[in-house]
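Take a specimen:
=====
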Amino acid sequence: MKILSLLTFFMLAAPHGYGSGAPAASSWLENITVIDSTVGSELYAAKIPHRADFEDRELYCVMERVNDDNIKSWKQYANVQGHARVVETTLSLVGEDGKKLFPKGNPGDGSQHFNEVLKKTSRQLNEIWVAYVTTNRKIEHISSGFSVYYTPGHIDETLHLHHKSWTGSPDRAGNSFAKNIQMFVTVTSSPEALITSHMGIATSVEAIITGRMKGISVDLHSFAAKVMLQRNPKRRFMVNAPLPTMEEIMLKALPTGSVFIGTREMLEIYNTKSWTYFAKDDPREIKLVKMMREHPSFLSVDDDGEEQGRRFKEKFTIYDKDDPTRVWLGPIDDRSPTYNWMFASAFIPAGFTHYVVVDLLALANARPIERYEPVTTAK
């Protein structure tokens, strides 16, 4: 009865442009397991359907609310994942085949951003979550004794893991939890907000060393989108400033018309000005302009041109996806408690990144899930 009422609510509350049936929603809402429904300590889980490349492993998606009880543990986890020596050593490791275990990119980029969200985003005004993929069949809250994880001895232990063989002590606080995590990301919104942000996605150091599962980032993003829609069916978009790799993954994984690149102002500047952000004839610029023209954004910012339309200063506006002349949300300014996180430093484009807007329902529908059945401990 509870599931039926939730499905009915989702269909009635679906925003303009979603359609009335929301067919895939009914196939995954009942597959989200609520392990802890305590307000402020919510914990959700689901199983990723088995794929051949998983071999003998099963993968589970988990999403935990960050609160006063677990923030220290998650910060300690982030400190190790982004630790300079850990990242440097991990990038130098080679497998039994002589190839680097992490040949492209830098896992430290995502983990450091993950850490910044945890450290600099207000939990009083926003909901912050950690979503992750784990091979651990027993889903539970992160341990409050996780602080030992961020010690010189444990860092050394982590770095001396043998490829595909865990040699550390499984009894040390933190190891048994951390060693099973494959990938992680923060998810931020607020109860009434109609958008959400997933920032700081990274493959864990332990997964790289012991044999990481590839191709699971969309599964993780999709699960997080499902949970955020379950909590507020009126939500419609994910707004991020991702690295180019994640941007390309989203474009390939989602249907046409689900991903929107840059801002209105960026495209206008590129269409009307002779100067450019990158060096002249830089392939990155040619590629970016092509993507913006093929996937034009309806996010508008108040940048006066100093940042070439990449970011807002004090306010932003989101126009209707189906009617670009009509305002869907905003203008939202930096005094808004509902969208406070969007103005935090961790969510502002930096370097060569820019905003990307993703249809949240399309993202939720992108990957299937199976229901997770909690492990029961015999008395």
